[in-house]
């Protein structure tokens, strides 16, 4: 059994401690038995076995708190995050292992044309609290959009069905999973043109000794991609199509 890392002062990566979003299919999510699943988890499990290190995954930590723990070296990595310049100064990113389209979801009884981000001006929207959708969308939303942050990402569609907002900004698969789980496919319209497509990467603490493993992880991700295994791993975690 590998020794547990004792905070940011440990010098050897014997245990990779990871957090992430708990409802972000196909990247990371909790299944019906509250077990961590997702393509990010599959990658890390196989990588950890190959390199003989322990893997500890806790998706129950709220995102904002997990980010603070990452900054302090209390955990080693986030299993899936978008790139921002601010984060890049503080953390170390891996190669992308997935891509997530950021979509606009509307109430099916109150739709409007969205061809680009500026079409959201003068409409009230919502997005999950605590995360980032990349520099462009984050800055544009802050400067030009009337948008609120929902603390409960899994219930964010309630804001649409109750007509409290005109749209919800959400990752494609995250949104589809919410629609399927809530059985509201007739009530929600997804605007098919994505606002942006964000690469998804592992994000490591610079205070973690496991940061030194990132080049090996990059090589592993590249191999999975080149052999087609990455696509197959991702497909097994895609949310089921919404059922009416």
UniProtKB/TrEMBL annotation:
SUPFAM superfamilies: Periplasmic binding protein-like II
UniProt-listed SMART domains: PBPb (SM00062)
Pfam families: SBP_bac_3
Domain Solute-binding protein family 3/N-terminal positions: 15-241
Organism superkingdom: Bacteria
InterPro entries noted in UniProt: Solute-binding_3/MltF_N
Residues in the signal sequence: none
Keywords associated with the record: Signal
Protein name: Amino acid-binding protein
Organism: Thalassospira mesophila
